[in-house]
Every structure is written in structure tokens, then in C-alpha cells.
Amino acid sequence: MLEWLKDRMKLATLIGFLSKKNIPQHKHSFWYLLGGLSLFFFLIQLITGMLLMIYYSPTPNTAYESVQFIITQVPMGWLVRSLHSWSANLMVFCVLVHLFSTFFMKAYRKPRELMWLSGVLLLFLVLGFGFTGYLLPWDTTAYFATQIGTEIPRSIPVIGDFMVTLLRGGEFVAEESLKRLFALHVVILPVVTIVIVLFHLILNQIHGTSIPIGIKLKKPAIPFYPNYIYRDMLAWTIGLLALLYFALLFPIQLGIKADPYASAPIGIKPEWYFLTLYQTLRLVPPVILGLSSETVVNIGVLLVVLALLAVPFLDRKATHEQPSPIFTVVGAAGLLYMSIAIITAYL
Amino acid sequence: MTDTLTQHIGRTAGLHDAGTTVIVLVTITFLLAIVCMLLIFKIKEVDHEFEKTRG
């Protein structure tokens, strides 16, 4: 049977292709596993998301009830929902760690600029999944957090109002918003993400794994197949164990059904990965140079995104295989700011 | 018909019975620990073969 499959699917060619890629072994090799782990959690997202879609109904009158049905009546429905939500959190965490480790190892340098660009794009797509999925249970927190979240782009000059209307499908978060965010969450974002993940993986196969600047290899590089794939599988098993622990010990709850006419509850906070933006909005004075705090933060976010995309082209020293401590310091400052913002938001 | 684990759920989601939670966690930890051990053995085996082919 296996031989038949190998013959019909030309598996020998694929295995040969995968064996050609070598993974360098050094003291920072551990960080390479985070990319595979991000992909693993994305696959869990796809599977659990498809299962949830069987019962979920995206209208304001039925969304909450359908989620309630999933967690109370559908066999293991509560576990599937918990796995979906926790794997989303773990996926964002792994993508962020993968991005920062790539940044600190300067793996974005020539010839891997496109890998970095697609990776940054994947980070924003992953954050997009979190944002668009948040409203779907249609409970109070989800409703008002989305109302606040979709208001943020309004202060962007010229296109602000258009972007808010595009997201909400009207002036307020209502039926149209739910339909739009649902369509983005289950069709548009997954399709775009799968295409970019494939592009990212193909580039990874073509260019191989980067070796950090100044690292002298003491051990020979190992082939991706079969040596490295077993290491990846080990990381995936440990990731699965962590996911099951989170999902079983801290199952995702459902709040009270959203009432759009009620006032927003006090102290609503977004998911942890949006807390840096949330805390920055709270820190910035209401008006700076005649611009509102939202406008200033939106401009700031835009500049950070552009700088992030331009990193491989700005870091000329890394391109010439020389250490670039300024970029390391800037990256460390960014990581420190993110960590402080997240921790202080919970205090 | 709902399964036994889902029957434990009241108004909110999750396992409400501490005993069931412990049994489920111990079982999955045991099973995945075995998978991890098998993978570690496999890694050592393929690494050894790789070293041998390099001479």
C-alpha cells in the first residue's frame, strides 16, 4: 500500500527535495522550531474552526445561541471551542517569538528579504484572525470590544471613515459587521494565509535556514528529512500537550448575550496581543500638535509597520555579514516595551 | 445524546469535576510522554545513521 502510494505520488522526488535542505546545528538552533510550531497551531485552527462552523450561525439573533449550543449540547463542543481559542493564542505567541528570534539572529538579511516580508505579513494576518474572530460569540465583551476596536481606524486621515464603514458595514457594529467579520475570519483570511504560508515555506526550502552572524558551526548541518522533521514532531507533541492543558484547565467561557442598547461595561480590555496598542492609546496625551491621540497612535503604528517591513533593506551591515548592534538594541527596546505594556495592563 | 464529558458541563464550559480533570490530564500526559520518548529514540537513530553515512 505504502509502495503503491510512493509510486503514484512520486514521493521519492518530494523526499529527495526535502532531504536537500540542511538545518545548521548551533546554540541558537532551538529558535528554528517556533516556525514549525506556529504552523502546527494554524493547522489546529483550521481543523477546529471547520468543526465549529458546522453548528455556528452568524446572525445577531442566533450567534450567541449557536455558541451556547456548541458548548452545552454538542459532544466535546466545549473542548473544540477551547482548543480553537487557546491554539489562536498560542499561534500568535509562537509567531511573535519566531519574528523576534528571526530579527535578533538577523535571518532577514540577503537573500531572505522576501521571507521576512512574508513573515511580517503573516503576523498581521494572524492578528487579523484574532480581531475578526472576537465578535463571533456575540457576547457583551465581544460586542463592545469590537465596537471600540473598529472605531480606532476612524482617525486615520482621508481613509479613516471609509475603513470603519468597510469593517462594520454601517455606522455601528450590527448584523452586517458580524457577517463581514465572519466572512473575513472563515474564508478570506484563511485563503490568503494559506497562500502566503506556502510562499514562505517554498522560500525557506529554496534558501535554507540562515546561520546567525559570527556563529562558527562545530557540528555538521543535518538534513531536513528525516533528521529535522522528527525534532519538529517532538516540538509539535509538546505544543499539543501545552494546548490540551490550557484547554482543559482554563476552558473558554461564554459571557452574557450582547445588548447593543446597553452601555459598555467598565474595564473592557482587548486580547493580550492588542494590549500594546491599547496601553499606548492610554499613555498618549489627548492632543499633540493639534492631532488627536488616536491619529498620533495610528501614524505611529503605520511608521512601525513600514520600518518593520524595511528592516532587511535598512540593515546594511547585516547584509555584509557584519554585526549590527543598533538593530539589536532597537528590537530589544521594542520587545521590552511590548512586555511592559502587556504586564501593566493586567496589574 | 451528549457524551459523558459534555454532561459535566452546566451553565459554563469545561470539566467541573476535579477527579475527571485529573484523570484526563494524567492520561494525555502519559500518552504524549510515550510519543515524546519514541520521537527522541527516533531522532537518536536517524542522527546515528547520518553520522555513519558521513563516515
As an assembly, this protein is: heterodimer
Q: Provide the β-strand percentage band of chain B.
A: under 5%
Structural class of chain A: mainly alpha
Radius of gyration of chain B: 20 Å
Q: How many angstroms separate the termini of chain B?
A: 61 Å
The helix/strand series of chain B, from N terminus to C terminus, equals HH
Secondary structure tally: strands of chain B: 0
In this structure, how is the largest beta sheet of chain B organized?
Answer: none
Overall 3D shape of chain B: rod-shaped
Task: Report the average pLDDT across residues of chain A.
Answer: 93
Describe the structure in your own words:
The complex is a heterodimer of chains A (347) and B (55). Chain A is mainly alpha-helical. Helices cover 68% and strands 2% of the residues of chain A. Chain A has helices at residues 2-8, 11-20, 33-55, 63-72, 77-104, 113-134, 140-149, 160-168, 175-207, 224-249, 275-283, 293-314, 316-319, 325-346, and strands at residues 22-23, 222-223, 287-288, 291-292. In chain A, a hairpin with a 2-residue loop joins β3 (287-288) and β4 (291-292). In chain A, α3 runs antiparallel to α5. Chain A is globular. The model of chain A has no long low-confidence stretch (mean pLDDT 93). Chain B has helices spanning 4-7, 18-54. The mean pLDDT of chain B is 82. Classes of the chains: A mainly alpha (347), B mainly alpha (55). The interface between A and B is medium-sized, with 32 and 27 residues.
